[in-house]
C-alpha cells in the first residue's frame, strides 16, 4: 500500500517503476564536492531523475542539499564525478527558486519575472506575453506593477516561482522555497505547487527538511545523511494523484510520513556513527 | 490559482511614499524650524538692543539683514563664485569617485595599486595641502576647485565601492544561471545595488565640497582668487566689518543647506519606489 524504503546508499534497481513516467532527464554519477577550505559537502552522490518526476531531497541542515542543487544548476563544479543531462541545456532550461525570494527591490514584479528572458536575449513583446502567463500561473496578474516591498512574504515567493517558470524550464530546482514562511502560507503554497505540477507535468527537484512537505508533494523522496553529504535512502510515494488537502488527513499520508521520518532518523544516526 | 487572494492591488498602489507625506506633517516639518529661528532671532535682537551691544561686537539680526541688502552687490557675485566652485568640485568628485570605484570593481589590480593613494589623499588634512596646491596650480579658481575636490572625492569613492560589492549572492547566482554577460551584470545588478550607497556618499560629499572650497579660499587669502564668499568673510574680518562677516556666514550656511536639500531630494526621487531610506513607515 505505501511506498518502499531502501536504506542502501546505492539504489540502481529501485527506480525502474518511476522512470516509466518518462525518459531519464538527469543523471548524477559519483559526484563529490570538496570546498576550498576542505569541507567535504557531498561525496559519492548518485541520482537519476526522469522527466515528469517530483523528487524531494530530504535531510538535516548542512547535509549538502543546497550544494547538490547548485552542482546540478552548474553554479558549482563537481570535484569528482559527472552531472549529465539527456539533452544539451541552454540558458533558461533550468529554473531555480532560492530559499529567499531573491527579488530585485528596484524592479517591479513584472520586471523581476522578465529578468530571465531579458538575460537570455528574448525580444520585448514575446517576453511580455510570457511574463503575463507566468504571473497568471501564480495568481499575481494584478500585481505586475507593484514593487517587491509592497508584497507579503508568500507573494514574493510566488513571484520568485513565476520568475523560475517564465522560461518554461526543463528542470525546476527549488531550494527550501517555502521554509521561511509561516505554516498557513506554506501549506497553501504547497497545495498550489502540487496542483501546478499536476497540471503541467514539470520535472522538479525539491529540497526540504520537512517530512510532511516532502511526502505531500513528491513522487520520490531521497533521504540524505551529512558529513559527507550522500543519499542513504529512497522512498517512492505511491499515493494517488491529484493530491488535495484531504490527502493530509488520510491514513496513507500518516503512514508515509512515519516511514520517511524513520528513514530520516536513521540517516541522522548514521551521521553520528561516522563522525 | 487564478484569483489573487491578497486583496486589492489598487489599494496598495496608494501607499504613501516619501513624496506625499500627510500635509499636516509636511507643514510641521517646515514650520517648526522656522519658529525656532524666529524665537532665537527675536531673543538675539532684544538682547542686543537692551544691552546696547555695539555692532562690531555683536550685530543685531536686523543690522545683519540690512548689511546683507546693502552689500549685495559684493556678496551676490561672491555667492555665485562659491556655488560654482562647490558644484564643479562635486561634479569632478562624482565622475572621478564613481569612475574609480567602477574600475576598482572591474579589476583587483587597479584597486590594489590605486586605493592606497586615494586613502592617503583623504587622510592628509586639506588645510596643510591647500597651500601647496595654491603654489603649483596657476589658475586660482582651478586651485580652489582642486582642493574642494580632494575632500569631496573620497566619500563617493568609498561608498560606491561598498555598494558595488554589496550584491546579493543569490541574485548573482541567478544572473550566472541565465548566462548574463559581464555588461548585463554590471548594468542590471551591480549599478542598481550600488545606487543607494552612491547617493549616501553624494550627500556627504556635497557638504564637504563646500567646506573644501571655503578652506582653500581662507588659505589663499588675499593671494587667491579673491572673489568667493569665504574671501569676503575674511576681508570683512580684516576691516572689522562684523555685520558683513555675519551676512557672509549666513549666505555660506544657506549654500550648505541648499546643497544638502538638493542632494537629499535627488536621492529621494531616485529611490522612492524601492529603497528603505526613501520610504515612509506606516503605522
Ligand atoms: N562555499 C562554501 N565553502 C565552504 N563550505 C561550504 C560552502 N558552501 C557550503 N559549505 C559547507 O558544505 C556543507 C553543506 O552545505 P549546504 O549548504 O549544501 O547544506 P544544506 O543541506 O543545504 O543545509 P541547509 O538545510 O541548512 O540549507 C555544510 O557543511 C557547509 O558548511
Ligand atoms: Mg541549503
Note down, in words, how this protein is organized.
- The complex is a heterodimer of chains A (275) and B (283).
- By secondary structure, chain A is an alpha/beta fold.
- Chain A has one domain: 3-Layer(aba) Sandwich (Rossmann fold), CATH 3.40.50.
- Helix content of chain A is 36%, strand content 23%.
- In chain A, a hairpin with a 4-residue loop joins strand 9 and strand 10.
- The longest helix of chain A is centred in the last third of the chain and has 24 residues.
- Chain A is globular.
- The N terminus of chain A is likely disordered.
- Chain B has 283 residues and is an all-alpha fold.
- Chain B folds into 2 domains: 35 residues; 214 residues, MetI-like fold, CATH 1.10.3720.10.
- The longest helix of chain B has 39 residues.
- Chain B is flat, with a radius of gyration of 24 Å.
- In chain B, 33% of the residues are buried.
- The N terminus of chain B is likely disordered.
- Classes of the chains: A alpha/beta (275), B mainly alpha (283).
- At the A-B interface, helix 3 and helix 6 of A face helix 1, helix 8 and helix 9 of B.
- The site of adenosine-5'-triphosphate has 14 residues of chain A, from helix 2.
- The site of magnesium ion (MG) has 3 residues of chain A, from helix 2.
Find the structural class of chain B using helix and strand composition.
mainly alpha
Spell out the CATH superfamily of chain A. Answer: P-loop containing nucleotide triphosphate hydrolases
Based on Cα principal axes, name the global outline of chain A: globular
Main sheet attributes: strand count, strand direction, barrel closure of chain B: none
Low-confidence parts of chain A, pLDDT < 50 over ≥5 residues?
A: 1-20
Largest sheet of chain A, if any? 7 strands, mixed
Topology of chain B as a string of helices (H) and strands (E): HHHHHHHHHHH
Strand order, sheet with most strands of chain A: 1-10-9-4-8-7-6
Please write the string of helix (H) and strand (E) elements of chain A: EHEEEHEEHHHEHEHEEH
Q: Which hetero compounds are present in the coordinates? A: adenosine-5'-triphosphate, magnesium ion
Query: What is the straight-line distance between the termini of chain B?
Result: 31 Å
Instruction: Compute the number of strand runs of chain A.
Output: 10
- Share of residues in strands of chain B: under 5%
The domain count of chain A comes to 1
CATH architectural label of the largest domain in chain B: Orthogonal Bundle
Radius of gyration of chain B: 24 Å
CATH fold-level topology of chain A: Rossmann fold
Give the overall form of chain B.
flat
Quaternary organisation of the protein chains: heterodimer
CATH structural fold name of the largest domain in chain B: MetI-like fold
